[in-house]
Design goal:
- The protein folds into two domains: 2-108, no CATH class; 121-341, MetI-like fold.
- The protein contains 14 helices and two strands; from the N terminus they run ααααββαααααααααα.
- A two-stranded antiparallel ribbon has the order 1-2.
- It has helices at 2-27, 30-40, 47-54, 63-71, 121-156, 161-175, 178-190, 212-242, 245-252, 257-269, 271-287, 289-294, 300-309, 313-341, and strands spanning 78-80, 86-88.
- The radius of gyration is 25 Å and the shape is globular.
- Helices cover 67% and strands 2% of the residues.
- The protein is an all-alpha fold and 348 residues long.
- Helix 7 crosses helix 8 (212-242) and helix 11 (271-287) packs antiparallel against helix 14.
Amino acid sequence: MGLFILRRLGVMLLTALCLTFVVFFMTNLYPNLEKLAKTQGNFRMTESEVASFLEPRGYLQPLPVKYGEWLGVLPSMRTVTEDGTVLGRCILPGMSAEEAPKYCGILQGHWGWSTVFKKEVGSIVSQRLGLTGTLMLWVMILMVPSALIIGVLAGMKEGSGLDRSLSTVSITTTATPEYVSGVLFIAIFASSAVGLKWFKGTATKAMEEPTFENFFLPVLTIALYGMGYIARMTRASMAEVMTAQYIRTARLKGVSFPNIVMKHALRNALIAPFTVIMLQFPWLLNGVVIVETLFNYKGFGWTLVQAADNNDIELLLGVSVVSVFVVLVTQLISDIGYVYLNPRISVT
């Protein structure tokens, strides 16, 4: 198992480098850099003025050099302007050249400076990630048990009326996008036009003080969409297990149906859904973009939209690093958990 984990960590590291390099390349295309220069200066800047803005700040260096500086394996470029101002990745507003470290990349914990929020990217990402983490926690608490119960009940008696009813509900929730269900929930439960003002249409106050009134609708909107997918996978896995030979043998021995389900079928039936549940974490992290924007909940997804809309390159890169890390870690946990749940899988 130890060798298996080491191999997976090696693959994770190589994958992370490849993915972050692709994102770095896309965000550092010249049209994006030109837009950044005009946003920070003025939109009537000429080509020479754009170049004079980008070159001292190191944006026109070769891509591998810029990527090495961003990672923190190469020293950051320093440029002294005519008025004596020192420019460089390590130079933050209010910092002198003597105070700035020579290496300042991701490996040193320096994520850059947000041109939109005027703050360090690391502090922005950690704050917004914490807000989305709270949202994800309550979504998983609502979504996973509900989906497993629906899937197990539907798969216990395949083809029954209960199975068809629960499967219809699961398919309906999965087929309804979050922006549709979210708008419907706001219109029905939070709008004065219908009259059922049970909840609030925005979750802005939930960032400081989450309550059932201002936090339940975004949680329900996300949970319903993912619930159907997990329930369908659990139902298919449970239906397959219930037709296995050892289940028939247990029935012939007179084992009660509840004991068959709980002691014999459930563990094997949860192998496939476990992988699906772990895949929900990266989906939740980046898939909440619509819901957070719709309910004005300023979490990780909302920050991603703001960074993309305003061409905030450093913030986009910071968000991408977190996204890649979450995806790779959940994949590793999923692989390890799959091996433990299914002893027939060999990792040698």
